[in-house]
Amino acid sequence: MTLPESKDLTHLFSDETRARKPSPLKTCIHLFNDPNIIFLGGGLPMSDYFPWDNLSVDSPIPPFTKGIGASIDSRNNDILKAELKKNEKLHDGDIPLARALQYGFSAGQPELMNFLREHTTIIHNMQYKDWDVVATTGNTNAWESTLRVFCNRGDVILAEAHSFSSSLAAAQAQGVITFPVPIDEHGIIPSKLAQILDNWTEGAPKPKLLYTIPTGQNPTGSSLSDERKEEIYEIAQKHDFIIIEDEPYYFLQVGRYIKDLGERAKLETDVRPTHEKFLQSLAKTFLSIDTEGRVIRMDSFSKVLAPGTRLGWITGSKRLLKAYISLHEMTIQAPAGFTQAMVSSTLNKWGQSGYLDWLICLRHEYLLKRNHAIDCLFKYIPDTSIFTINPPIAGMFFTVNIDASAHPEFKTKFDSDPTKVEQHIYDTVISNGVLVVPGIWFITDGETTPAQPKESKEISNPNIVFFRGTFAAVAPEKLENGIKRFADVLKKEFALN
């Protein structure tokens, strides 16, 4: 089947993007590596002056039969300074250190990007042909770049009613207004999204972007179903906006929580499904249903390798990605050479099969962590209608809903204000030696003249607040102790001792 070209969506570019001219110096940087060119045109230092001759990294060996700890079954990866050193040869996928540490390749080093292109074809059933990938320094950088590529000050974007606070702050800092889209325990409600856009104030510019975290959403832990993604994509086509798919938790899909230990045991011992079974178990992505190039997907190694790599990538249509490359040439230049060399060497030695093995093992570890966290929540938090425990099916966060109006001092000390109860519980929990984060920190705030239909503001109980916790950060015994401290505060505050 011949795939179509992407749709031209460059009319959604920002004024900054339209005004930016390519750097003349960047147009010739590729000639630096041409052996037939004596390169005198740029301020590049000689690699002889770099004080590192090689980079040596120990990494575990697929298929990780003894686990995914780096100290087990480890193998040494040597990344050399130059390709033509006598008696030395680079492995396939290794980036010469002399090149990795030099200027150039703002889109990402070829060896790494080739791996990611192949990875993309395995994970996503791409529906158009002119797509590509571009390296980033993680999804935070990718999102801030996206705002600059598409948005002017005063523009409106759509975001989940509760969303990642740093992403909201980045928009606010650039003068971009975030407009909340109602969500439930399964993420964005497509009918509410359609209602907002169908009733948008006549003559007012519609949003260019929808920012969403579809899998293991931060902070709510919710995950969009395949059916909802299809509906949302059709709304994007109708109203001509781009979907920004922020997916750092995509491979941490652990399935529904099962209380019954007997039923659960089979899942917990199925450590190593086949690659085919693993791929079939993954949720459909917005990217995989995109026929027009109106999805920008942001991926990161932060949650699957390490946050300190500061390395990720975006996938989208080539004509849109050109604007990112032009921006990055003026801002980040490129992700760190050390990181690209190290990650590329590791992934290419593992191969696509080995990387899938890694992701399978990692998902299993998160399954065990999720189950332990939810077990502890049910064990320690009182079984009452005041509290609702929300087991996630993906990601690294759990949430607990609390009916603030049930607090004995709700109408007196807290003036019937649920946010005051929320702040008080947060302060009290901190004083008892545990940190969980209040939901109020993640509210998408910033309505503008386009009138939001009244129905989309309604929630079943305005006195419900929630707290977000993570099961990823600490060992199981500490996690249980932390949840117990949290539960003890709730019991005392709501007079349930």
UniProtKB/TrEMBL annotation:
InterPro entries: Aminotransferase_I/II_large, Class-I_PLP-dep_aminotransf, PyrdxlP-dep_Trfase, PyrdxlP-dep_Trfase_major. It catalyses: an aromatic L-alpha-amino acid + 2-oxoglutarate = an aromatic oxo-acid + L-glutamate. Its cofactor is pyridoxal 5'-phosphate. CDD domains: AAT_like (cd00609). Its EC number is 2.6.1.57. One of its GO terms (molecular function) is pyridoxal phosphate binding. Residues 101-439 form the Aminotransferase class I/classII large domain. One of its GO terms (cellular component) is cytoplasm. It comes from the Eukaryota. It is an enzyme of class 2 (transferase). Its main location: cytoplasm. The keyword Mitochondrion does not apply. Belongs to the class-I pyridoxal-phosphate-dependent aminotransferase family. This is aromatic-amino-acid transaminase. It comes from Arxiozyma heterogenica. The lineage of its organism: Eukaryota, Fungi, Dikarya, Ascomycota, Saccharomycotina.
